[in-house]
Amino acid sequence: MPPSCWVASTKPEAGTKASLAMPTIGCRAGIAGTTVLYCWKGHKFTFAGHRADTRAVTGYLISVIAFAVPLVLGATGLGRPRIFIALGAVVACTWAVALVAGRAHDSQGHHLVPIWFLAGLVGLLYGLWCGGLWLGTRLRKARAH
Fold first, then answer.
1. HSE toward the beta carbon, residue 51, CA cutoff 13 A
2. Whose CA is closest to 3, among 51, 41, 57?
3. Residue 114, strand partner residues
């Protein structure tokens, strides 16, 4: 472990009595929900892990893009709202089919993620798409007056 670092553990490792923010030895740093490695670099307090949690960040970026693209295009007036709603519906249907086709199976052949859950996720993204477009057109109309 580098100098001037400590490990804060939310769950003690087996055989130890470590609690939150107590220095522990032999912990696995970077496991979500169990341990986090903190370091001081000069006067900055930073997280020591160099790898990002790409699964959570990917979902966040997809939702931000699904909202921001129609927001910007609706606010600038670069396209008609009907075209964006239709485009969003086509993308949502295509994405839903791709998600259903690529579902994971367990060892007995059962699907791990139900179709209704995937349809709900795609529906939420389409709602973000339409909400961004609605807000963008409202901003454009407010700016025009």
1. 8
2. 41
3. none
Give CA angle at 12 (11, 13), nearest 5°: 115
In our burial notation (b when 16+ CB lie closer than 10 A, e otherwise), range 119-142 reads eebbeebbebbbebbeebbeeeee
pLDDT tens digits for range 112-145? 888 898 899 999 999 999 999 999 999 998 988 8
Task: Please give the model's pTM, rounded to 2 decimal places.
Answer: 0.58
Amino acid identity for residue 2 in this structure: P
66: which 2 tokens?
């699904």
In the 8-state DSSP scheme, what is residue 10? S
Structure token pair of residue 20: 């939150």
Is the pLDDT reported for residue 35 higher than 60? no
Nearest by Cα to 132 from 62, 71, 69: 71
